[in-house]
Amino acid sequence: MKAYVFPGQGAQFTGMGKDLYDNNPQAREMMEKANEILGFRITDLMFEGTEEDLKQTKVTQPAIFLHSVVLAKSLGDDFKPDMVAGHSLGEFSALVAAGALSFEEGLKLVSARAHAMQKACEATPSTMAAVLALPDEKVEEICSTIEGEVVAPANYNCPGQVVISGSVAGIDAACAKMLEAGAKRAMKLKVGGAFHSPLMQPAQEELAEAIAAAKFRIPVCPVYQNVDGKPHTDPEEIKANLIAQLTAPVRWTHGVEAMVADGADEFIELGPGNVLQGLVKKIARGVATSGKQ
């Protein structure tokens, strides 16, 4: 069974999507439509922007979403997913690819999400850090011991790789404790803020209104959502999980394990980069992985 997976923030690179734009008329049409909806030429930033340009949350999220969804649409009748999932932002790409949201509504929601998250990042100095080679339970335990600061697990990426999220002082204190406890590495990431933590509460409230107003349909296949790693097809459940996702951890490990348990033996990554293929291989040894970008 085929599982299509869609990357999140961090997968962007200069030149992303240019081949599609140059060689596929449908892709070019969708990208120009995105420029129109967003009110600026995101394609110029995707094709020629600097690393700094692409790192801005309000640019990164729609750029990765656009690249991923255009790839799925460019496959035409060959896109026959048995299940889909996306990492954080990638969940929106997965929902559009599976028909739960229109391309236009998906792009507007991603843009609203990106702006809301950027505002929340600017309101409170915060960051994230990757912790390697500690059990999930140990990471959770250390996060809970940091007093007076916000620190929480944000991404369960694969066994032995958890990203934590919180205030700058809280992350610094947690990293020191992770290393003391035997982590191979505890390194801060170059991100704008504490995604998937309680510090995203203001963004969550803003996004909840936009999601409530959007029209969701039953997807063509189950969508394995980040909040619980389980398959969902009910539009109301999907909406609630999307809202919860902003302040809750991404349970990527759990989602991949659930897809494999439900029969997935081939994972295809659609979008920039190949990060998810690497994570899938670490979670489920022996499954086939490939990607298109």
Query: Main sheet, how many strands, which sense, barrel?
Result: 4 strands, parallel
Give the number of helices: 13
Tell me, briefly, the overall form: globular
Report the β-strand fraction as a percent range. 15-25%
Mean pLDDT: 95
Order of helices and strands: EHHHHHEHHEHEEHEHEEHHEHE
Low-confidence stretches: none
As laid out across the biggest beta sheet, the strand order is 2-1-9-10
Q: Provide the CATH architecture of the largest domain.
A: 3-Layer(aba) Sandwich
Instruction: Give a count of the beta strands, DSSP E runs of length 2 or more.
Output: 10
CATH superfamily of the largest domain: Malonyl-Coenzyme A Acyl Carrier Protein, domain 2
The residue fraction in helices comes out at 40-55%
Q: Which value, in Å, is the CA radius of gyration?
A: 18 Å
Overall number of domains: 2
Q: Helix/strand/pairing class, anyone?
A: alpha/beta
Q: Tell me, what is the CATH class of the largest domain?
A: Alpha Beta
